[in-house]
Design a protein that fits this description.
Blueprint (H helix, E strand, L loop, with lengths): L11 E6 L3 H4 L11 H20 L3 E7 L9 H6 L29 E5 L8 H10 L3 E7 L1 H14 L3 E10 L4 H19 E4 L1 H7 L6
Parallel strand pairs: 1-2, 1-4, 2-3, 4-5, 5-6
Helix pairs in contact: 5-6
């Protein structure tokens, strides 16, 4: 059965969060910031996007980032990043970091560009959802403990309901972040924010299959 009884193709959207080079590509890795587990997840995500379009026939929304540099980020992030333990500025000035990694939005997909963690901080994104009558969001992407978490929290506060696909969200390879992501998927997401399941469970619930 569907995760929520009232879900349908008109009020449900798939959100693909930040599958961009800066969060995925090996050329953008640095020190402890490794994306191997993310790259391993992406082929399954690409397959699921196709299945979602064929089975659910709902809207697909991709998020991407502005250059993650001081001049593009909001004041609160710039102030946070004065702490050396938190600073996360990109040094790339070529535009490579902001380009999509492997995924390819199609003409009927929506692309939203954001300059902070929570996609709901972007008023244009909110307006797209309200204009289209979208209430249910199926969440995929990166980072589980960063922009995924922030978007789920922001969207729940805004009145949306969520399905979080635990096999299609991921974070960096660092052990502490992997452990935190596991806790989020086992406890925080399902208890506080939304139905948490695998992509196969989701598709099967709509009467489709993943084979």
């Amino acid at each position: 059965m569907k995760p929520y009884e009232k879900m349908n193709s008109q009020n449900t959207a798939l959100v693909v969060i930040d599958i961009v080079n800066g969060c995925c590509h090996e050329q953008c890795e640095d020190g402890n910031l490794k994306f191997g587990k993310i790259r391993s997840m992406v082929p399954g995500l690409i397959s699921f996007i196709k299945q979602f379009k064929e089975t659910i026939k709902g809207q697909v929304i991709y998020t991407k980032i502005t250059p993650w540099t001081k001049e593009f980020l909001p004041p609160n992030l710039r102030e946070l990043y004065t702490d050396p333990a938190c600073v996360y500025y990109s040094t790339d000035t070529t535009g490579f970091s902001e380009k999509f990694y492997e995924v390819q939005p199609e003409a009927d997909d929506i692309v939203v560009t954001k300059n902070t963690y929570d996609t709901f901080a972007d008023n244009a994104f909110r307006q797209i959802l309200w204009d289209k009558g979208i209430k249910y969001l199926v969440i995929t992407g990166v980072f589980t403990d960063g922009c995924v978490l922030a978007t789920v929290c922001g969207g729940f506060q805004a009145g949306c309901n969520f399905v979080i696909l635990k096999d299609l969200i991921e974070t960096t390879d660092e052990q502490v972040r992997q452990e935190l992501s596991g806790y989020l998927m086992r406890y925080t997401f399902p208890i506080m924010y939304g139905k948490t399941m695998t992509s196969k469970e989701f598709i099967d619930g709509w009467g489709g299959n993943t084979s």
